[in-house]
Amino acid sequence: MKAPLSLAHGLYPSSPGILHARTTMGSIRVHPHPGRNVLFGRAKRPEVDLSVGGDDQSVSRLHAEVTYRNHHWWLRNLGQQLVRLPRGQLMHTATDPIPLAEGYTPLFIRGSGYRQHLLELYVTGYDDDLQQRHNGTTIPPRKWHLNEVERLLLVVLGERYLLYEEGPRPLTYKQAEARLAYLRPADKWRSRTIEDRIEAVRHRLHAGGFPYPLLHDKDAGRPYDNNLLHNLLTGLVESTTLVPPDLDLLNSDLEGV
To answer: Could you tell me which residue ranges the FHA domain spans (predicted)?
Structure first.
């Protein structure tokens, strides 16, 4: 018989290994015991331990489960829709269970239309003190150093990203050359020069631990698309290294360019 789950109004740990789960339908806290199984889905309690997407029939009645064994909580997808984890990782019903790391793991279940149902999971560690974090100093996003020329080139290439358009893609280097020829004809930029400058940025940021791939796979050869540039611009915008006010560079002069 499964031990009862305690409802949690906040995610406050009391010992390591506790699983905290939260959706718009409520929250639970589960202590780690071998064989403990926790169910999530569209159904109501007691069929599931925590409901998610309760009014959306694209979500399965039993959509995901987390089981404690071998000193870890293991996640498995039970539903017809894929479960999406951080960094775009997807889980199908045929996917092997995945161990949850200590800390926060958000799961997204695709619903009807544009709906995405969020299931927040948190596994407490030995050093967790979430109550103290409520009053702690805000941690800013990591920003990446760019000089004035690099910032200008990236703003030109990534104007659509800074406008927060849906599904943006960067300009090609040829398009950037034409754009700069119109905006700053005296600078005489060439596509190859622009590409070389951006490649130097990619290598520098890759060495600094950039969160997205920035270098070519040597075994796969040089790609024909601009996915690496897309990764670069995405990471710079997400980190607020590039922000909408940078678009003013397209309407002003830079000394020494």
So the answer is: 38-90
